[in-house]
Design brief:
Elements: E1 2-6, E2 9-12, E3 17-24, E4 34-40, E5 47-52, E6 58-60, E7 68-73, E8 78-83, E9 92-99, E10 106-107, E11 111-116
Length: 117
């Protein structure tokens, strides 16, 4: 199983980035997985940022609501995180995760997002 995350980089405050995570080798159809984006900043625990269910229902933490949008394209086996109005506190390594129910699921390798002030 591989979850290939991409799209990270260095951006100025107020800028935008779109992260992508493409899955391959999943045991079940991509559309059956809840897809999530997590992030881990230096010295902090990994936190859930946004997720999208198998039915396409999206959810995000309060600190990114209105700025980040999670979406998925099941035909492309890809989940996206559109990030706008980025702030320095959004700086972190961003990971995608595929899971079913409460299982641990699968993690991607992470992509670095750095927002300069």
């Amino acid at each position: 199983v591989q979850l290939q995350a991409s799209g990270g980089g260095l951006v100025e405050t107020g800028g935008s980035l779109r992260l992508s995570c493409t899955a391959s080798g999943l045991p079940l159809t991509f559309g059956r997985y809840i897809m999530g984006w997590y992030r881990q900043a230096p010295g902090k625990e990994r936190e859930l940022v946004a997720r999208i269910t198998t039915l396409g229902t999206a959810w995000a933490i309060d600190s990114v609501k209105g700025r980040f949008t999670v979406s998925r394209d099941n035909a492309k086996k890809t989940v996206y995180l559109q990030m706008a109005s980025l702030k320095p506190e959004d700086t972190a390594v961003y990971y995608c995760r595929a899971r079913i129910g409460s299982t641990e699921g699968y993690w991607g390798q992470g992509t670095q997002v750095t927002v300069s002030s």
